[in-house]
Amino acid sequence: MTRLLMLAACFALATPALSASAQDAAAPAAPAAPAADAPTTNAPLTGNAETGRALTYTCQGCHGVDGYRNVYPHYHVPKIGGQSPEYLVNALHEYKRGTRRHPTMQAQAQSFTDQDIADIAAFLSELTK
């Protein structure tokens, strides 16, 4: 029951920001499809911090609270601003795969593409506070 309430509160906090940001943010252009004979690489994606800024609007619902605490006084929300891009990329991919567990974070990560994750990491890693 507590987990359900925590999930509902996080979504309730993020919903107003989601509505405002969705109206203000322009949809990023879709990348061009690679040619059929183009070689594939495993090179890490380069993140765009400006795109990442637009994608992190829901993160502020929990991680943007002073002291990094959400509405539950006994639940510490980790600091994500200023973390290394590698840490952030790995964490989001682990949530997406389900190897790192937190229902809200897993739901959020499922909605991100690999490029979204790189963009988010680029933006958050530049924050100093």
Q: What's the short version?
A:
The protein has 129 residues and is an all-alpha fold.
What would you say this structure looks like, in words?
The relative contact order is 0.19. Helix 2 packs across helix 6 and helix 4 runs antiparallel to helix 6 (114-126). Helices cover 53% and strands 0% of the residues. The chain has a single domain, classed as Cytochrome c-like domain (Cytochrome Bc1 Complex, Chain D, domain 2), CATH 1.10.760. It is built from six helices and no strands. By secondary structure, the protein is mostly helical. The protein is globular, with a radius of gyration of 16 Å. Pfam families: Cytochrom_C (PF00034). Residues 47-128 form the Cytochrome c domain. Keywords: Electron transport, Heme, Iron, Metal-binding, Signal, Transport. InterPro entries: Cyt_c-like_dom, Cyt_c-like_dom_sf, Cytochrome_c_Oxidase_Subunit. Residues 1-22 form the signal peptide.
CATH architecture: Orthogonal Bundle
Task: Output the structural class.
Answer: mainly alpha
Shape: globular
Total helix count?
6
Please provide the ordered H/E string of secondary-structure elements.
Answer: HHHHHH
CATH classification, class level: Mainly Alpha
Largest sheet: none
**What is the residue-mean pLDDT, rounded to a whole number?**
73
Strand % is under 5%
Low-confidence region ranges: 1-27, 35-40
Please, what is the CATH homologous superfamily?
Answer: Cytochrome c-like domain
| Radius of gyration over all CA atoms, rounded | 16 Å
Strand segment count: 0
CATH names the topology as: Cytochrome Bc1 Complex, Chain D, domain 2
Q: Approximately how much helix is present in the residues?
A: 40-55%
The tally of structural domains comes to 1
Distance between the termini: 33 Å
Signal peptide: 1-22
Protein name: Cytochrome c553
Keywords: Electron transport, Heme, Iron, Metal-binding, Signal, Transport
Domain Cytochrome c: 47-128
